[in-house]
Amino acid sequence: MALSGGGYRGLFGAEFLAACESKFNVRCNNRFDIISGTSIGALLAAGLSASVPATTLAATIKDYGPSIFARGITTSVKQLVVAAPYSPAPILEAIRKTLGKPVAATLLSDYDAPLIITAVNYSTGETSVFRSKGIAGKAASAVSIEDAILASAAAPTFFPTKKIGPSEYIDGGLVANAPDIIALLDALNFCHARMEEVYQLSIGTASRRQGSAVHEKSRAPGSFSWIARRGLIQTIMAAQEHLVLSQMSSLLRNRFLRIDEEPAQNQVKAIKSLDLASPAATETLQLLAGKAWEGHKTARPLRDFFLR
């Protein structure tokens, strides 16, 4: 299973998986050999790998979202000019409340469940893939689960970098907002699966495609416009995600199932940014998760992941 990043929009995936666990009377960790995640997907992946019910994960996002993304009149100014506007402290609290402090503090090199968390090493400019003992054995990462999640969630312009040892880390969404390819390669390389044996469930975050209308002349926006008006960070993540999903479809074909639900035009405003954690955002994400569930609940591809 691969869980995409998307800030508060991760509620979409948590609600969808909660419906799956309830309907099929199973826990996700008993049905998937690998669980991978980026950003909010990293928290969901860690929780699912530790047998935390998806309903609990959905409640965590709803309970902590407003404090994690506590917007004020100076939020936009801080975001664009001064510093990252949000503190990682509420995320850490949510991690420890959801997983329990002992599990949250566990080193991935001591963690037997199969878990993958992605990040970017800002100090070296390299992709960092944090792997548990349950995936990589002796090659697992000597990083705590909570530190790996915080690194993966350190989205530029939203949160400060996460320091682990001598390096600083930022959001894995910059290179692997959909960590599907990483999960696939680890199944082949670490689990020694054959390509034809791999079935993968991919969960999105109900994000609307980024970009703007085509104009007769090419646009040349400045850096402020790119970030403030055109959502550069989210566009990078969306483009990367689109590429990975097209690659996964080509590689696995009907053995790859992507669950996502793009909002209608009248729903966009409520969830247009990953840091919107309002009642309207909650309602919209729950509606979209419900729509995705209704569209897939009787479909054989989904049922096979949970019942086969």
Keywords for this entry:
308 residues, 8 strands, 47% helix, alpha/beta, eight-stranded mixed β-sheet, single chain
Commentary on this structure:
By secondary structure, this protein is an alpha/beta fold. The chain is 47% helix and 11% strand. It has helices at residues 10-24, 40-49, 54-68, 75-82, 89-99, 101-104, 133-136, 145-152, 173-176, 180-189, 223-228, 232-252, 268-271, 279-296, 300-307; strands at residues 2-3, 35-38, 115-121, 126-131, 162-164, 167-171, 200-203, 256-259. Strands 1, 2, 3, 4, 5, 6, 7 and 8 form an 8-stranded mixed sheet that branches. α1 links the parallel β1 and β2. It starts with a strand and ends with a helix.
Question: What kind of sheet is the major sheet?
Answer: 8 strands, mixed
Output the structural class.
Answer: alpha/beta
H and E string? EHEHHHHHEEHHEEHHEHHEHHH
- For the residues shown, what is the average pLDDT? 90
SS summary, helix count: 15
How does the overall form come out from the CA principal axes? globular
Low-confidence stretches: 211-215
Helix proportion: 40-55%
> What's the Cα radius of gyration?
18 Å
User: Beta-strand percentage?
Assistant: 5-15%
Our measurement of the CA-to-CA distance between the termini, rounded to an integer number of angstroms, reads: 15 Å
Number of β-strand runs = 8
